[in-house]
Amino acid sequence: MASTTGIHQDNSVIADIPENEPLLGRPGDVTQKEGESLVRNLITGTATLAQAGIWVLAALVWSGVLSQPLSLFSPHPMLSVSAILLQVQAALIVQPTVTPTQKRNGARIHAAIQLLSVACFISAFTIIELNKGDHPHFTSPHGILGLTTYICIALQTLGGVVQFFVPSLVLGSVDAGKRFYKYHRIAGYVLLLLEMAVVVAATQTDFNLTTLRIPLWATLVAIVLILAGVGARIKKYKLGF
To answer: Which of 4, 25, 83, 152 is the most exposed place for a label (fewest CB within 10 A)?
Structure first.
């Protein structure tokens, strides 16, 4: 005769789960388990939504550019969306970290990914400047938002380097660097919103409307997935709330 213990235990577990419990967990629920690989942080919880969104966005941009004859301008949008893709990975990798070891290892990988992202952004900026030549610069909403974003990225990168690598030298102590980290996190999320605004503005440029034809509606769907996926994993206590 088969034992019913396992059945009773399963029923007990199911009974303890509220009917309105979200399938992917509640906001901030995702936590890296002891001994679990950092790589899993890229797909746990609502990270799957963010991944779907950013890869769809990248596919929209890359396919739109590669469907046209290549020019000096072509690498600009491809490098820009690649940089954002890397930034999303960098955010997802550190969100669930809890223990000091997890945080330290996560921060190192986060920094390495962000370094690649910044290199892509610098390349994208250089290319668009060369492409503009003697024409007016930063006159469209996309151009103005883009320049603002590049400046914020530079400041955010500098703050991250100071906070993690040389806190004692610049801020006076390691503890000061740890206190600064919550502001670095908040700024990172705000910067992601700003980058999404730049992407939306890019769909309204003459070049996209007449040549690339990347649809605004598809771009917005991808952005909603990205923001929902990343936003739902924010741990308020890490932001000082």
So the answer is: 4
